[in-house]
Amino acid sequence: MELDDIKDIWNDKPADVVGSDKISAMLNRQSHNPIAKMKRNLRMELLIVIFSFGVVAAYYFIAFKSEYSIIGWGYVLLLVLFCYYFFRKNKLLSQMECSSCKVKSNLELQLRTLERYVKFYLISGTAIIPILFIFLGIVLYYKKPKLIDETILYPSATNPVWKFLLAWFFLLTISTTIMWVLNRSYVNKLYGRHIDDLKQLLLQMDEQ
Amino acid sequence: MTQEEFVRQIEANQGIIRKICRLYGQTHRDREDLFQEIVVQLWKAVPKFRGQSKFSSWLYRVALNTAISDFRQKKRSLLVSETEVDSLEMKNGFADVNSDTDKQELRNALYAAISQLPEIDKAIVMLYLDDKNYEEMEDILGINANNLRVKMNRIKGKLRLLTKNISYGTR
Fold first, then answer.
1. ∠ at Cα B59 (B41, A34), nearest 5°?
2. Using an 8 Å Cβ cutoff, are B58 and B67 in contact?
3. Is residue A141 over pLDDT 90?
4. Helices (H), B93-166
C-alpha cells in the first residue's frame, strides 16, 4: 500500500460527528491533563497546610495565657515558607505548557521546566528537615526547659558549646542526607519516567 | 473569538481532532476522553490565538501538543496489538475498495499500522496525509523541513512494510 494512493480514504468524513450542543457542554469541563491535576493537588495541599498550621498557631497564641506565643510565631513563619514553596511550584507548573506553541518548543519547555520543578522539589523537600529540627529544638527549649540539662542538644553547665554544636551537626547531617536520598528516589519515581519520555520524544524529533 | 464562533470552528474542524484521537487513543473511551481534553485545551488557548496563522494550523498545534504530552494516553496506545493489523492485512489482501465496508476496513488497517509508529512519526504521517506541505508541517511541529522530508521517506518505508499485504484498487 502506498501512502499517496490512499489519501482519499484517509480524508473521508468521520462517521461520528459531535454536535454544537455537545461541544458547548465540553467547554465547562475540568481539564484532565497531568499539569492541571498537579495544580489542583497543589491547591488542595496549600489549603490543608494553611488550615492545620493556622489552627496550631492560633492555639499557641490563645492558650497558656499567650506564654508560648513565640511558638505560634514560629508556626506563622513556617506557614510563610510553605506559602512561598507553593507559590513557586504553582508558577513553575503554569510555565510548564504552551499548548499553542510548536510541538517541539512545547516539549522542550516542558522538559526544561519539569527539570527545574524537580530540582526545586528536591532542594526544598530536603531543606525542610533541618528547618523543622531547629524549629522543634526551639519549641522544646521553651516548652520543656528541664530538657536543657538532660540532653546533649542544649548548651548547659555540664554540656559545653562544642559538644552541643557537634551533636546538632551530626543530627542535621545524617537526617538531611537520609531525607535527600529518600526524596531523590521519590521524585524519580514520580517524574523520572515523564522526564525520560520527554527526552525520548525530543530525540525522535531530532534524529534524521 | 466568542464561544459561539469557537464552537462553530470546532464543529467544522472536528475531523482533524477525530483523526488525532484515533491515532493517539487506543480504546473508544480513550478517544472520547482525548477529544474532550483537546476541546478544553483549545478553549483555554483561544485568548492566545491572534489569527496570524490559519485556524486549522493552530488547531493542529494545540491538539497534537495535548495528545503527545498526555502520557496517560500514550501508555495505553502502546498496547496497540499487531494482531489488529495482521487480521486486517489478511482481510484486505484482496480488497475491493469500491465497497464501503472494504474502504472502512482499509482505513482501519491504515490507522492500525500508523498507530504502531513512534509518537512523532504518527504526527508527521497524519499531517502528510492531510496534504500539509513541509513548511506547514514545520510550522506545526517545529522540525526543520529538510529533516521532515528525510523522516517522511523513512516512515513511508516503515508503513510499506507494515502494510505489505494490503493492496489498494486492485484485485
1. 30
2. no
3. no
4. 100-115, 119-129, 134-141, 145-162
| pTM summary value | 0.80
All structural domains of chain B, each given as residue ranges with its CATH number in brackets, are: 3-77 (1.10.1740.10), 82-162 (1.10.10)
User: Which amino acid is it at B78?
Assistant: L
Cβ contact (<8 Å) for B107 and A10?
Answer: yes
Number of Cβ atoms within 10 Å of the Cβ of A131: 13
Give CA–CA dist A55/A61, Å, rounded.
10
pLDDT digits (tens, 9 = 90+) for B88-140: 444 444 344 556 677 777 778 888 888 888 999 999 999 999 989 999 999 99
Closest CA to B69 of A185, A202, A39: A202
Of residues B7, B58, B160, nearest to A100 (C-beta): B58
Nearest beta carbon to residue A5 from set B62, B151, B169: B169
Question: What is the DSSP secondary structure assignment for residue A18, as one 8-state letter?
Answer: P
B24 in contact with chain A, both atoms CB, cutoff 8 A: no
